[in-house]
Every structure is written in structure tokens, then in C-alpha cells.
Amino acid sequence: MPLLLLVAGSAGIAGLARRTPVPAPLLLVTAGLGVAFIPGVPDYTLDPHVVLPLLLPPLLHTAALDSSYLDLRANVRPVALLSVGYVLFATLAVGYAAYLLVPDLPLTAALVLGAVVAPPDAVAATAIARRLGLPHRITTILQGESLVNDATAITAYKVALAAAVGASATWGAGLKEFAVASLGGIGIGVVLMVPLHWLRCRLRESTLLENTLSLLIPFTAYAAAEQVGASGVLAVVVVGLYLGHRSWQVDFETRLQEEAVWKMVSFVLESAVFALIGLQLPVVLRGLGKFSTTQALGYAAVVFAVVVLARFLWVFPATYLPRLLSARIRTREPDTTWRAPVIVGWAGMRGVVSLAIAFSIPATVQAGGPFPARNLVLFLTFTTVIATLVVQGLTLPPLIRALRLPGRDAQAETLAEAQAQNEASRAAEARLDTLLKDERNALPGPLADRLRTVLERRRNAVWERLGAVNEVTGESADDTYRRLAREMIDAERRVFVELRDARRIDDEMMRTLLRRLDLEEAAAYREGAS
Questions:
Q1: What separation in angstroms does the CA of 193 have from each of 19, 57, 111, 260?
Q2: 420: exposed, middle or buried (C-beta count within 10 Å: 0-12, 13-18, 19+)?
Q3: Residue 119 carries which DSSP code?
Q4: What is the 3-state secondary structure (H, E, C) of 391-458?
Q5: pTM of the model
Q6: For the residues of 105-119, what is the DSSP string, one character each?
Q7: CB contact set of 149 (below 8 Å; sequence gap of 6+)
Q8: Which are the contacts of 10, defined by CB distance < 8 A and separation ≥ 6?
Q9: If residue 466 lies in a helix (H) or strand (E), which one and from where to where?
């Protein structure tokens, strides 16, 4: 029952957040903090054995499916510098700062803290970027960073943890583990992606089976990689990018259902995990031990400041040094200004992955003693996550508006869409002419004209969005067309229901007829959403 209430409550709050200017992750964390202190509310402790293998794969898979392989390949340098270089830099910067700050904290334990808080969670940042219409390249870089940085952080954490608990760990062993994890994860993903896609394409007769396979894919890729000591995160990302890039080869019904299923899964999981962050506070506070709340809050303020500063110290050189060293980069990226790295630098909010990694820190070391300042590490992780969500999450939208970055050119995008649709429609019309010459494809004149009318309608729809609007309703001709089409579909739907109620058709026939209308309405809605 508590779990059901958690999911239902978090989903409701996330839905409410869409009606407010406050980012959903921030509202969910705040609600979790408030609920945590209500008498009778049970303690919720993030179990890393659940969060990492059960929650992380589907969230990464969804993000990878929605990402563009071509855009990521075009921006591989900034994405790699952030997802690998910055995470390692933040691990060292935060770790060394904590080592100097906290008395008697071993450097190895401090580096564990650094690795834990190093990876930003770009869910909130990318949502804000899309909502405010940031340039496409910035959104791509933030999204690409979030796909890979978890793998870097988890690997760095494993190396630092081995040294902290007393296992044999050297720089050479650490580099070897990092190479095995990264190259192995990519290799597992490459091995799995083609047969998984082939299997999906061969299950065309069973949409339900295809979507069941789709739900199993991220867990399969993650488990296969982790089983051999490779990065499950990278395996999931590689498979997801490939399947998303090849999704056009899958049956249309599967694509429609799959998109709806993964949107629901992503919405529920993201809502629940951010609410869980807030619910952790009582557990974390009780574990502070010898550190007073005042001391811990002072340490937390310094760690938060180092986290923020380290990102800027990395982002600006990573943006401008390659341009200084390479004329090719200067030619390819002539419009880079100081405002873009400011946005990327401030969009470093942390999330549930940091907390999940922190809770996986063992209570004892190999010699049998307690892990040094484990409870303080948990507290500092928690406060860093909360502080970045509150401070950066609330200020990122006004910062974006204040900097006045050039947003997406909606008219240019619509024009490009119209030109692409025009070329595709002409190709379809030429194909139709060829097919109708074959006697096996003979059609009555009205039906052939209907096919041509559909093509003409599709070709004109995008151009009409660039045209004038109705002075009375404020709609374009295309908007009016969609609205009238939906009104007609609603009228048909009511008649089918009335015929079923009058027992003139049965429920099975009504569902068949309604499904056809649903597909037509979905097509009309998608045209409107585009």
C-alpha cells in the first residue's frame, strides 16, 4: 500500500507541475521532503540493488530512444568532454576539497564522495531546455552527457571504493577497470543491438510480443554487461541509440504502442524516484553520528560550492581550448558565444543516481572497521542533490531568459519540414502511378483519387502552417482542418456507441470501428503536435 501511494502521489504531483513554472523534479523533491516529516509515514531507503539495475536501465533506454545518433555523433567532442572528462575532474576536485575540509577523512573515502556526486542528472535540465526553446545543440549536449556520465561515475566510484575499503587498488588497476567497463559496455551493446533489432523486425505479426520484448531489452543489455564486469549503462545506451535510429523499420502499430508505453514508464519512474529523494531526509539525518547538524550543513555548503565551481572550471576551457587549437573546429562552430557555456555550466543538477550510488557504500571495510564517515557522505550527497535541484533548478529558466540565447527558428524548421514532406509526397505519387499501371493493382477511379487527395493534403499541411490565420478564431487553415476532422470523428464515434447500445451491432464490432477512428484521430493529433 505505501508503494502504491508513493507512485500515485508522485504521478499526481508531476502532473500538477505541468501547470506551474516549477520544474517537476524540484516540486517532487519538495513534496517528498514535506511528506517525510508527517507522523506515521514509513521510512523509504533507496536500495542500490533495486535502483541501479531496475530503475536506471529503463530511464536510460527511454532517453536513448529519443536521442539522435546523428546529432550525438556530430557533437561527440563536447559530449565526451562532459560525460567523461568533467566527471573525472569533478571526482578529483570534490574529493580533494572534502579531504581538506573534513577532519580525519581519508583521501580514498573523500574520492568516493567525489565520484558519487560527480554525474549530473539532466532530466530537469533537458526538460527546461526544450520548454524554453534553447538551441538544439545545447539540448543535444546536455542529453548526450546524461546518457554516458553515469557509466563514468559508477566506474570511478568502484575504483575509489576498492581503495577505501582496503582492497588492492592502484592507478594501473583503476585505468584497466575503467577501460574494461567502458569498452566492454560498448562492445556488449554492439553485439546485442543488431540481433535485437532483427528479432523486433521479425515479430511483425505480434505487436504485443514486440512491445513485451521492448520492455525487456534494457534489462537484458544491462544484466549481460554487468555479468562480465562491463558497464551496463553503456550497453543500454548503445542498444537504445541503435534501436531508435532504426525504429522506422518496425511496424507502425508497434511504434505507436511503444512510444506510449515508454512515455508512461518514464513518467512513472521519474516521478517516483524524485519523490524518493525527498523521502530520504529522516534516514540521512539519523545517521550523522558524531557530526552535528551545524557542522554537516557547513560541509554541505562548501561541497555544493565546489560542485558548482568545478563545472564552470571545466566547461569554459573545454569549450574554448579546442577552438584555439583547431582551425577546423573554429570553422565548423563559428557561432559559439560565452552564453552557451554559462547555460551548460549552470545545468549541472544532480539526481537519484548519486543517491543510489551513495547508499551502496558498504558499512564496513575489509579489516572489519566501519567505513570512514559513511553517514556524512550520505548526508553530503543528499544535500548536494537537493541544493542543485533547488538553486539551479529554480534559477536556470530565468537565467536562460536573461541571457537571451537565440532560440530555435520555428519558421525555418517548418520550412525544412515542408520541403521534406514535399519531396516524400512526390516520391509516393510517382510510386502510386507505377503501381496503378499494373493490372493487379487496378482501383476504381474514386479510390485512386482518394489516395492522391491524401498525398496532396499531407503535402499542403505543413505549408499551411506558414500561411495566414483565421481572423475570427486565430487558427491557420491547417488548424481548422484538424479541428473539423476531430469533430467529424466524434460524431461517428457517438453513432457507433448508440448503435451498440441499441444492440444493432455488438461490442466486438464497435471496438473494431472505434479503433479505426482512434488511428485517424491519432494521425490528426500528431499533425497538430508537429
A1: 39, 15, 35, 22
A2: exposed
A3: S
A4: HHHHHHHHHHHHHCCCCCCHHHHHHHHHHHHHHHHHHHHHHHHHHHCCHHHCCCHHHHHHHHHHHHHH
A5: 0.81
A6: --HHHHHHHHHHH-S
A7: 82, 83, 84, 86, 87, 118, 119, 120
A8: 28, 31, 32, 268, 271, 272, 274, 275
A9: none
Residue closest to 149 by CA, chosen among 353, 356, 396, 377: 353
Return the minimum-mean-pLDDT range out of 317-321, 408-412, 477-481. 408-412
Q: In the numeric block, which cell numbers belong to residue 462?
A: 505543413
Return the DSSP state at 85. Answer: I
Amino acid in the structure at residue 147 = L
Q: Examine the pLDDT at 125 and tell me if it is beyond 70.
A: no
Identify the residue whose cell numbers are 545517521. 287
Half-sphere CA count of 294, side-chain side, radius 13 A: 0
Contact 226, 177 (CB under 8 A): no
By the 8 A CB rule, do 41 and 35 touch?
A: yes
Question: HSE on the CB side for 260, CA within 13 Å?
Answer: 8
Write phi, then psi, for 529 (nearest 5 degrees): -70, -30
Report pLDDT for 530.
Answer: 46
The pLDDT value given to residue 126: 65
Task: Calculate mean pLDDT across residues 270-275.
Answer: 76
Bridge partners, 32 (sequence order):
none
Q: Quick one: 119 exposed, middle or buried, by C-beta within 10 A (0-12, 13-18, 19+)?
A: buried
- The string of pLDDT tens digits covering residues 213-256 is 889 999 999 999 999 888 888 999 999 999 988 888 887 778 87
Question: In one letter, which amino acid is 121?
Answer: D
Residue in 93, 247, 91 with CA at minimum distance from that of residue 174: 91
> What does the block give as the cell for 321?
581550448
Q: Which of 323, 315, 342, 238 is nearest to 79 (CA)?
A: 315
Count Cβ atoms within 10 A of the Cβ of residue 185 and give its class: 0-12 exposed, 13-18 middle, 19 or more buried. buried
- C-alpha distances in Å from residue 449, one per residue of 15, 429, 433, 453, 496: 44, 11, 11, 6, 27
Quick one: the chain helix, strand, coil %, rounded to 5? 80, 0, 20
Q: 370 forms bridges with which residues in the sheet?
A: 364
What are 89's three cell numbers?
Answer: 575532474
What is the reported pLDDT for 402? 86
Does position 420 have pLDDT exceeding 70, yes or no? yes
